[in-house]
Design a protein that fits this description.
With 342 residues, the protein is α+β, with helices and mostly antiparallel strands. It has twelve helices and nine strands. The strands form two sheets. Strands 2-1-9-8-7-6-5 form a seven-stranded antiparallel sheet, with helices on both faces. The protein has a two-stranded antiparallel ribbon with strand order 3-4.
C-alpha cells in the first residue's frame, strides 16, 4: 500500500483527527504524504507547507544542537553545570532556587539529555526544595531540565535558541519553515489544534516550552532534520556514536520498566528494543497536537508523523505500525509510564 493510502485510510478511520502529515525515509530516499484539513470546519488542506507545533519533538532537535556544540568543544557531556556558571560568571538570579543547591550544581549535560537530573517534568521554580533523586540514578522525564540547559547555553554563547537553531540546524539543512520565533508570513500556513472530540482551538502563535516543546515546523522540514540525525547516528559521527547507546534503564516509580529490557533512553532520544535491534523514538504531545518520530539507525529507515489533534489520538501509532510492524514497545511506554510520570 502506498504511503498516502495508509495515511488517508487512518485519517478516515479516526474521524476526530482532522489532519496529518508524514515523512518516511530509508536508504533509498524519502517520501511524504498529507491528509485532512488544517481546521476541521474549513476547506484548506494539510500540505507540505502546513506548520505544526512540534511539541516534544523539539527535544531531539535541541539535543542535536547540544551534541554539535560538544563536538566543537563548547560543552562537555560530563562536566557539571557548576563549572560553566563559574567560568562564564553567569548570574544565577533566574534559577536561584536551583543553583543554590549543591546537589543541583552536579548535574551534567548528559544527565539532562537522558532525563536523569532528579527534576520533575515541570514545576514552579519557587516551589523547588530538593532533587527527586541524585543525578544519574533514574529516568524521570523532564522538560524543565531541557529549558534549563537552553538557558545555560544561551548565556554561554550570548545567542538565543532561535539563533543557535539557525546556526546549527536550519541553515545547514536548509529548513526554511521552522523556528522558535513567530513570523507573520506563517499565518495562513499554521494549523489549528483540535480537542479529542474534534473541536478546533485558536491558533497558538507563540508556544511555551522553549527547547522542550516550542518549535514550529512543517512535516517536511522536521523530516529532513530527523533523517540527518539518524544518518549521523548510523555513521557514528563523533558524539553521535553515543546517541543510540542505552544510557539509562532505571525508571523512577516503575519496577516493571526498570527490569524490562526493551526501553531505555539515549542522548536526547528515547530507545526501544524491537526485533533484536535498538530503534530511536520521541513522542510530542502539546495540548491539541500529537506527533511521533520513530527510526532504526542500523538500517537508516524511519518516519515522522504530525497530527493537529489531542495528545493520545490513535493515528500515529496506527500509521507507524502499518509501516514498521505491530508491537513497538515505545507506544505502550508512552501510554503506561510517560502519561503517569510527566
Amino acid at each position: 500500500m502506498l504511503l498516502h493510502e495508509i495515511l488517508d485510510n487512518h485519517i478516515a478511520r479516526f474521524n476526530t483527527v482532522p489532519g496529518a502529515g508524514i515523512f518516511y525515509f530509508d536508504s533509498e530516499g524519502y517520501s511524504t504524504a498529507f491528509a485532512g484539513k488544517k481546521h476541521i470546519r474549513q476547506v484548506e488542506k494539510i500540505t507540505s507547507n502546513t506548520l505544526f507545533e512540534a511539541a516534544s519533538l523539539t527535544k531531539p532537535l535541541f539535543a542535536y544542537i547540544v551534541i554539535l556544540m560538544i563536538d566543537k568543544g563548547i560543552l562537555s557531556l560530563d562536566t557539571p553545570i557548576d563549572f560553566y556558571i563559574k567560568k562564564y560568571k553567569i548570574p544565577i538570579l533566574d534559577y536561584q532556587e536551583f543553583l543554590s543547591d549543591p546537589a543541583f550544581l552536579k548535574i551534567t549535560p548528559r544527565a539532562i539529555l537522558i532525563h536523569s537530573t532528579g527534576l520533575p517534568n515541570w514545576m514552579n521554580i519557587k516551589d523547588y526544595k530538593e532533587l527527586l533523586f541524585d543525578p544519574g540514578d533514574y529516568f524521570q522525564y523532564s522538560g524543565m531540565s531541557y529549558v534549563f540547559l537552553q538557558w545555560l547555553i544561551e548565556r554561554i554563547t550570548s545567542q538565543s535558541i532561535q539563533e543557535l537553531a539557525m546556526k546549527y540546524v536550519f541553515r545547514p539543512l536548509v529548513l526554511k519553515q521552522s523556528g522558535f520565533e513567530w513570523r507573520m508570513e506563517w499565518e495562513n500556513d499554521l494549523a489549528n489544534g483540535h480537542s479529542s472530540d474534534g473541536e478546533p482551538l485558536e491558533k497558538q502563535r507563540k508556544i511555551q516550552g522553549g527547547a522542550a516543546a516550542a518549535l514550529l515546523t512543517t512535516v517536511r522540514d522536521y523530516g529532513f532534520f530527523f533523517r540527518d540525525f539518524v544518518d549521523k547516528i548510523r555513521k557514528k559521527e563523533d558524539v553521535f556514536a553515543q546517541v543510540d547507546i542505552p544510557q539509562i534503564r532505571r525508571f523512577r516509580n516503575s519496577d516493571f520498566y526498570s527490569q524490562h529490557s526493551s526501553i531505555a533512553w539515549g542522548l536526547g532520544i528515547g530507545m526501544e528494543l524491537y526485533d533484536d535491534e535498538w530503534w530511536i523514538w520521541q513522542v510530542g504531545a502539546n495540548p491539541n497536537f500529537f506527533n511521533w518520530a520513530l527510526a532504526n539507525p542500523s538500517t537508516g529507515q524511519g518516519a515522522v508523523i504530525f497530527t493537529n489533534s489531542e495528545p493520545g489520538n490513535p493515528v500515529p501509532e496506527a500509521v507507524l505500525s502499518a509501516l514498521f510492524g505491530d508491537g513497538h514497545p515505545c507506544f505502550e511506554f508512552d501510554k503506561v509510564y510517560l502519561s503517569q510520570n510527566s
